[in-house]
Design goal:
Strand order of the largest sheet: 6-9-12-15-18-21-23-24
Active site: 138 (proton acceptor)
Pfam family, one: PglD_N
Bound molecules: coenzyme A
Number of domains: 2
CATH architecture of the largest domain: 3 Solenoid
Domain PglD N-terminal: 4-81
Site (Increases basicity of active site His): 139
CATH superfamily of the largest domain: Hexapeptide repeat proteins
Protein name: Acetyltransferase
Length: 229
Amino acid sequence: MTALVIIGAGGFARETAQAVRDAGDLKLLGHLDDNAALHGTEVDGVPVLGGCDLVHDLPDARVVICVGNPRDYAARARLVRRLDLPTDRYASVIHPTAAVSATSEVGPGSVLLAHCVLTAAVHVGAHVAVMPQVVLTHDDVVEDYATLASGVRLGGGVRLERGAYAGSGALVRESTTVGAWSLIGMGSAVLGDVPPGEVWVGSPARRLRAAPAPALDELVTRTVGGPLT
Ligand SMILES: CC(C)(COP(=O)(O)OP(=O)(O)OC[C@H]1O[C@@H](n2cnc3c(N)ncnc32)[C@H](O)[C@@H]1OP(=O)(O)O)[C@@H](O)C(=O)NCCC(=O)NCCS
């Protein structure tokens, strides 16, 4: 069975560990996390083996990066750049209850948690985090590093650009684009296009402020994931 390490040992990483266990097709070696206080401990019964750079000493293990939160949702992109691993080191983790249509595709390093639905011709890029009960409908495009918190629903033909963050329960009207590294607040209803690098909230969603993520200019323009084949 192929070995896997999960980068990160926080909430999303622990959820991914449970999905790996439920899927049963990868052997989870443990978590890697730069918080030295966790090294040698266990989270939910899974060992924290060491810091993130230990991944270079485990060349046979595949990898998934499970860090980030609404205050720092560029964290996965920074780690991908720092670790500089070949794309084929990255695994996709898909919970067995996720319904992924045959016409949809999921990129390397992406995670789909329980009860997600990808209805038809949905493209999910690399290093995308899809939390439980997210519904992606026909022709949606979710670009690399995007995050979809639990219960997000995208209408048909929606595009979430690179690194965009959709908060819990957010709704996005069909054929709408959410710009790169923009954040949609939890429970918001997006009715029209959101420019890159902004925080929008409410129903209907309105601009709250600029997005805070650091070094966005570089992350917006850099192509890391590349096209899916
Ligand atoms: C959008 C968000 C990032 C704003 O956080 P913040 O910058 O700390 O903003 P504040 O809480 O100070 O609120 C600023 C204003 O926006 C409003 N606001 C914040 N979030 C809102 C939301 N989701 N919907 C509607 N209004 C919202 C507040 O009521 C406040 O309005 P006011 O100035 O009129 O009082 C945050 O509320 C949010 O939704 N985060 C996503 C949470 C989530 O999905 N987590 C999942 C984790 S797995």
